[in-house]
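Protocol step 6 of 9: fold each sequence in the batch and record its structure tokens directly after the sequence line. For illustration, a two-sequence batch is reproduced in full.

Sequence one:
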Amino acid sequence: MTVRNGQGRRDGGRKYPGASAVALSEAYDTALLDLDGVVYAGGEAVPHAVEALGVARAGGMHLAYVTNNALRTPDEVAEHLTELGVPAEAGDVVTSAQAVARLIADEVPAGSRVLVVGGEGLRVALRERGLVPVESADDDPVAVVQGYGGPGMPWARFAEAAYAVGRGVPWYASNTDLTIPGARGIGPGNGAAVEVVRIATGGRAEPKVAGKPLPPMHRETVLRTGAERPLVVGDRLDTDIEGAFNGGVDSLLVLTGVTDVAQLLAAVPEHRPTYVAADLRGLLTGQPEVVADGDGGFVCGGWRASVRGGELVLVGVPGEGADVMDGVRALCGAAWSEADRPGGGVPEAGKALALLGV
């Protein structure tokens, strides 16, 4: 097996994606899969996700579902996955609600009251840790926890959080993702709701956050999955990929969610995935090597990318195939190397992306 720039390297100087001579589902024992934008969007399966996960599972890869969305319980998530054709049990699901509940339980006495601003997933996770969910700032909570409550979350819930936080009650958040993908597009996530409370309290308080990319979520995932050679699979650079970087594990970015190719090319080192694929079919293949050709260019498959006058230049290599994702990987090599060069910056990518049609 050949895996380059992989196997848990945390070097911020990684200049181009990694490569694997075997399928990623063979190179890693466990896929730590984000859900929204990776497996499903707006409740419906992402194209190719069900089939790809089925093949990976049949080949012996353990699948765990790690989500910053604290709305639903693990049982509900597992039931939804199973309905979509992805067999799962509650024990396969790790949520930011579980991570924040453990964080709170480590810092307050057992049996403490916690004001919940969010969905049932938070309440179940708190009870699992021996804490008591309450609904009002007047219920003498010792902590406030805020998680995604869905698009129908009443404004009054944010007011309860603001009342308690304004009185000095410690504040926790399951995650601070500003957006969440859905069937109709990108909507506001829990981070946007956290900002509502922050504004209402004059910015005087700061929540302790548990979700990706922060250590409490990584700790929860390790405790619940026992993975030895995990691969984080996600669609967000600032949560999934940075979380993998912070945890010292490898990552696969799929382009089915919130991140587009332009954002990938502009990624800072801690947001650069080990691997990149169009969708979850990327688990079932190896990853081609991006080769620096010694003349300022980066070659992958049928493409060569370079930087000229602050602009990415992409050309097809004669006689070879022209897989779009190989072009993306070559562009990553050129863009990231240019950004890391002393005095360098993020090159303009418009013409190159238009050539690829992405």
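Sequence two, same batch, same settings:
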Amino acid sequence: MTDIQEQKRQLRRTIRQRLTELTAAQRREAVDRVRPCLESAAAGARRILVYLSMPDELATYPLLSTLYLGGENLRDIVIPWCDGPDLRLFTLLRADSPAPWESLERFGELLARDHFGIPEPKAELRNEEAYRFDPKHLDLVIVPGRAFSPRGDRLGRGKGYYDRFFPCLRPDCRLAGLAYAAQIVESIPTEQHDRPMDLVVTEEGIVEPCPRT
């Protein structure tokens, strides 16, 4: 293990402890407070990828309606699923839906929980053409992380799914980290493959890193 890998491991441990200290009330309040910040971050985006949160992450399920119905028009809302070492995309909610509220109420019918308890597209639907989505069409990717810095650096869980996925995006697709404010740290050790976020959204506001030289 390299020095940077060990530093990342220690930081993941620190963040894990911080997250265990958040109460259920604080977690609910964070979702309510992050909603307008997320809508502001998504302004202008018509096709958005958003992860379905794990139990220790800021909950994204209550935010799906904000993303889908926000702005002047409906949006395509896409979710990722794991296919071996890679992420694949699944269209959860469609901008061309004739009945958006019905779509929101029934999207759960498209999902099943994996062995970690995380909702993913049902296996029989994953490869249907109607649900496939080309990452080149995305305008905004909402990215999970264990920690983020004011510079936009991100610490993931160490599996590399998003590191392998980012090169599939258009150069102008924006990356928005989403996290509790408790997950913002002064600095994060980085490696050559680590890609910074364009912005980071928390319940305390939006962090927009200065351009790097």
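Proceed to step 7 once all outputs are recorded. Observation for sequence two: The chain is about 25% helix and 20% strand.
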